[in-house]
Amino acid sequence: MKVLLGVCGGIAAYKAGELTRELRRRGATVQVIMTAGAEHFVTPLTFAALSSNQVMTSLWQPVNSDVASGEPGAFDIEHIRVAQDADVLVLAPATANFIARLAHGFADDLLSAICLAAKIPIVVAPAMNVNMWLHPATQANIETLRQRGVQIVGPGSGDLACGMVGDGRLAEPTEIADHVLAAAQRTSDMANETILITAGGTREPIDAVRFIGNRSSGKMGFALAEAAMARGAKVILIHAATTAAPPAGCEHIHVTTAAQMERAVLEQLPRASMVIMAAAVSDYQVVSPHAQKLKKTTALTLELTQTPDILRQAAQQRRAGTLMVGFAAETEHPVEEGRRKLREKGIDVIVANDVSQPGQGFDSDQNAGTIISAHDERMLPLSSKRVMAESIMDYLRTTSLRLNPR
Ligand code: PMT
After folding, report:
1. Which residue has a Cα nearest atom 5 of ligand 1?
2. pTM of the predicted structure, to 2 decimals
3. What is the pLDDT of residues 146-157, one digit of tens each?
4. Which residues are identified as catalytic?
């Protein structure tokens, strides 16, 4: 396994030496990249000796030695090549300044450019003064990174180099190494899956301009798609109306109504090894929508009929071994309702979320819920939708449901 270790300019930079050794002990190849600030605390020679590798320090370092071969294509842009070649990138220690630059997409030195070019998992181990850690700007930057799927390890609490006591100590090298290895394994743990994910809210026409809709933004489904792709899965994303932008890198199918979503899901079903329905599908549709805009009257009566239950049908038509996952959006007794829908729809897993709570559920960046299956139930605490999506993927990957097909 190839690990990129970015060392920033803080007093805890010396502890990155122990992390280098720990990662090598566990069989990893370590490529250290130091910021200019880090070189004030530790020399590149220290890390070169500990990693048995040249240390990278500058965006303007000469390109790789293959260039001498004169072969076409031998010229590599170093920060791009390094970012592509590795399995995982860890920043330890990550200073408040570097975290801010990462959150805002700076690429003005080698380490920040590599972070921007990297499509591999990123683990950040912050270390700084307690006041700097607790500052709202740092906390907002950390939250931004979390929402993008960056894993944050620590900081720990205790005596700090500045003489103060509190949060801000670099996490222990063994703990950071545990997270780095787990993150690297995740990059390919769904490589054999083709996952069909639905997102957004369907719209059922009333007339030429009006519709029955809901508040789904698509964020939950898109977070699931991003998490699945980051683990190597092929994703087929069927999305209805959304306010968020769908992620790149997956197959997109855009639909409007529940009937269109039903057709698309059933058409794609044979290709899927897993189906996750995070879309908010309208339960009713207008029997005869008007082709023209209805004239305003004092009262309007609409005849509604139920839409098809897409998840239930897909569960009945799936091939053996296809895992079926639903979401239950509830305002009362979410877990009980989730259990009922799991049974009635004949699916393997349901994520029950309470959409009556402010700051979670519909159109929010955060969510919380309970994963329910016939085997167990697991709480998902309030977190960004991307972090929740990772927990759901962890569950779906490790669950033994596939060993006990329905
Ligand atoms: O999009 P966001 O703003 O990020 O919000 C996320 C969310 C709140 C929409 C999401 O977390 C969520 O709960 N999605 C499911 C919403 C819903 O329709 O729940 P339900 O309890 O009505 O339906 C249960 C399941 O059956 C869902 O998986 C749904 O997709 C599916 N269903 C529902 C009706 C229907 N006719 N066919 C279906 O397949």
Report:
1. 362
2. 0.81
3. 888 899 999 988
4. 162
**Does 38 sit in the ligand 1 pocket, CB within 6 Å?**
no
For residue 259, the CA-to-ligand 1 centroid distance in Å is 15
Q: Write the single-letter amino acid at 9.
A: G
Per residue in 104-159, pLDDT (tens digit) is 999 999 999 999 998 889 999 999 999 999 999 999 999 999 888 899 999 988 88
Token pair for 331: 């305002």
Cα–Cα dist 176/89, whole Å: 12
Question: Which pLDDT band, with edges at 50, 70 and 90, does 69 fall under?
Answer: low
Q: Which fold has domain 190-403?
A: Rossmann fold (3.40.50)
Residue 307 pLDDT level (bands cut at 50, 70, 90): very high
* Domain 2-187 matches domain 190-403 at the CATH topology level: yes
Domain-wise residue ranges, the chain:
2-187, 190-403
Domain topology for 2-187: Rossmann fold (3.40.50)
151-152 and 122-126 as β-strands: parallel, antiparallel, unpaired?
parallel
**CA distance readout (Å), 213 to 20, 69, 147, 302, 316:** 53, 62, 27, 15, 27
Determine the pLDDT at residue 71.
59
The finding on whether 219 has its CB within 6 A of some atom of ligand 1 is: yes
Whole-number Å distance, alpha carbon 321 to ligand 1 midpoint, is 23
Residue nearest to atom 14 of ligand 1 (CA): 278
Strands (DSSP E) along 127-202, which ranges?
151-152, 156-159, 165-169, 194-199
Cα 197 to averaged position of ligand 1 atoms, centre (Å): 12
Instruction: Say how many C-beta atoms besides its own lie within 10 A of residue 75's C-beta.
Output: 10
Q: What is the pLDDT of residue 406?
A: 46
